[in-house]
Structures are given as structure tokens and as C-alpha cells.
Amino acid sequence: MSTKSALLTHPNDPPEITPDHLEYSAQSRNQDKDQPVVQSPTEFSSFQAAIVQRAIDGDTIELTNRQRVRLIGINTPESTYKNEVYGKEARNYTQEQLAGRTVWLQKDLSERDRYGRLLRIVWVEQPDNYSENEIRLKMFNAELILKGYAEPSTFPPDVKFSPYFRQFAREARGQKVGLWRFGGKGTTTGDFDFIT
């Protein structure tokens, strides 16, 4: 399958990032880091439809065109080169939920990581807006955190949803869901190892 057929731009996509968006993002990062900032769809790059071939790890998927995608803003316990507690469960959950499924990929600011993987937010449905409810119901990155398979892991400049991710992780940690059953710092490295 060609890249063009595996990654399709949707006709209702919001426009590309503008210089105004970059200025807005820089301002929003200077605000209280735990206060969610709701942005309009015009402040994000286009969605791309893609079909997931398989999960490599809980937070890394491979598309049918062989592109690898690293879900940004989160970190699941390792299950490939080393085995962290709850890593296999996270990988299995991602595999069960996404393999063979069409998803919507959304870039924040960075294109790829140092390993050549696409850095993306993964939506199981395109959102109608970026309300907290839409994020909870349609964004797979958020779902992994809410269900205790991932910790928030913020790497600037890709920080648009970080306040939500930390909020959702506090909820999961408070309920001792998934990896939070093993302690208040989870089972892998994440934001809560560095902030309280």
C-alpha cells in the first residue's frame, strides 16, 4: 500500500499551523502548567486517516504503510527491549484496540523523533471540538492514561494536551487504576517523577 493511500487528508480538516498559532502556543506554555487550555481547531495541523497494522509497544504503533508512530505526551511501560511492570498489558491493550482500525493522526509541532518515528496524537474518531469531553472519548493517547496504561510524559514543544494528560493521570492514580496500583510514581518514567 502506498503512503498516499494509507495517509489521507480529510476534506474537513482544519488549516495548517500559522505563525499566530506558534505565538499563542508559546504564551499558553507560560500559563499555569496544570490549567487546561482549550484551543480552537484552526490552531492545529490537519488530521490524516491511517490504518494501524500493529502495536509495537503500548505507545508506539506501526501503520499499514510501515510508518511507525510514537504517541506524544504519554509513556507506557516498556515491553520490547526491557520489560517494565504493566508493559505487556499496555502493549496488548493498544494492539486489541487499534490493530486493523482506521485512526486519525494529528501533529502537534514536531514531525518526527530521533528514531524517525512520526510524533502524533491518535484519535479513534475525529473530534468535533477540543473540549475535555471530546478528548476523553475520542483521543487514544488520553484513553491510555485514563485506563492506567500510560503516564503523562511531556516533551516540548509538543505540549498542547499536557495539562489534560496530567489531570487524567491524577484521576487514574487516585483510583489506583492499571500501573498506578504499583505505587504513586507508576511503573515507568513520566511527569510525576519530576513534579508533584
Automatic annotation (TrEMBL):
Ranges annotated as spanning the membrane = none
* InterPro entries registered for this protein in UniProt: SNase_OB-fold_sf, Staphylococal_nuclease_OB-fold
Q: Locate the TNase-like domain: which residues?
A: 46-182
Query: Where does the record place the region Disordered?
Result: 1-40
Keyword line: Endonuclease, Hydrolase, Nuclease
A Pfam cross-reference name? SNase
What terms describe the molecular function in GO for this protein?
endonuclease activity; hydrolase activity
**UniProt-recorded name of the protein:** Micrococcal nuclease
Species source reads Mesobacillus persicus
User: What's the source species' lineage?
Assistant: Bacteria, Bacillati, Bacillota, Bacilli, Bacillales
